[in-house]
Amino acid sequence: DIQMTQSPSTLAASVGDRVTITCRASQSIRSWLAWYQQKPGKAPKTLIYKASILENGVPSRFSASGSGTQFTLTISSLQPDDFATYYCQHYNGDPWTFGQGTKVEIK
Amino acid sequence: EVRLLQSGAEVKKPGESLNISCQTSGYTFNTWWIGWVRQMPGKGLEWMGVIFPGDSQTRYNPSFRGQVTISVDTSISTAYLQWTSLKASDTAMYYCARPSADQHFDYWGQGTLVTVSS
């Protein structure tokens, strides 16, 4: 199975901060990577697919890049609604696997 | 509008069977894969498997193969996740989700909490 490793596991930041989360795959997944946001007690919400494409309706302060084994999700100016847990997930062959999550907390 | 509506929370005893459902609407059910994701308490997301309703082709995460069964009823555009003998370790939130054309999950159900306790 392809292992997905996110860093950091927890991140404390303030409103207005630029935030970057990294996701590393144990082998190349080309660009078959998605990012999801999850708030407590809620279903995940899809933010990004194919490594860098914003899902419809996702604010432009979210961006992502990468290919192969290294990927990043960036929030350019953190908003109160962005405090949540973020997961990367590959879909380059079965089984699809998720990273362990990055919790973005209020500093 | 695409919607995935999951069945309500369940409380079961070890050894019991269970079927949870995901009723879909707003798209042609038979032509899109649909899958299930587990989230154990306080933990991350795990891909369990997907099914193509058009021909019932099913792909399981090896970690879940033999532990659960994914099925569909195309007449009511509904997907199911089934257990024949629940364990306490099956306690989790289960989400159905629809893979998009490029296979990332683009739509999610609201989740079904399954609690297994004696």
Write a short abstract of this structure.
The complex is a heterodimer of chains A (107) and B (118). Chain A is mostly beta strands and 107 residues long.
Walkthrough of the structure:
The complex is a heterodimer of chains A (107) and B (118). Chain A is mostly beta strands. Chain A is 0% helix and 48% strand. Chain A contains no helices and ten strands. In chain A, β7 and β8 form a beta hairpin. By secondary structure, chain B is mostly beta strands. Helix content of chain B is 0%, strand content 52%. In chain B, strands 2, 4, 5, 6, 9, 10 and 11 form a seven-stranded mixed beta sheet that branches. Chain B has a four-stranded antiparallel beta sheet with strand order 1-3-8-7, with no helix packed on it. Classes of the chains: A mainly beta (107), B mainly beta (118).
**Overall outline of chain A:** globular
Radius of gyration of chain A: 13 Å
Low-pLDDT stretches of chain A: none
Which two protein chains have the largest interface (Cβ within 8 Å of the partner's Cβ), and how many residues from each?
Answer: A-B, 23 and 22 residues
Oligomeric status: heterodimer
Q: How is the biggest beta sheet of chain B arranged?
A: 7 strands, mixed
Main beta-sheet annotation of chain A: 6 strands, mixed
| Structural class estimated from helices and strands of chain A | mainly beta
Q: Give, in order, the helices and strands of chain A.
A: EEEEEEEEEE
Estimated helix fraction of chain B = under 10%
Strand content of chain B: over 45%
- The helical percent of chain A reads under 10%
Q: What is the number of helical segments of chain B per DSSP (H or I, 4+ residues)? A: 0
Total strands of chain A: the figure is 10
Round the Cα radius of gyration of chain B to an integer and report it. Answer: 13 Å
Give the count of helical stretches of chain A.
0
**Class from helix and strand fractions of chain B:** mainly beta
Mean residue pLDDT of chain A: 97
- Overall pLDDT of chain B: 97
Largest beta sheet: strand ordering of chain A: 2-10-9-4-5-6
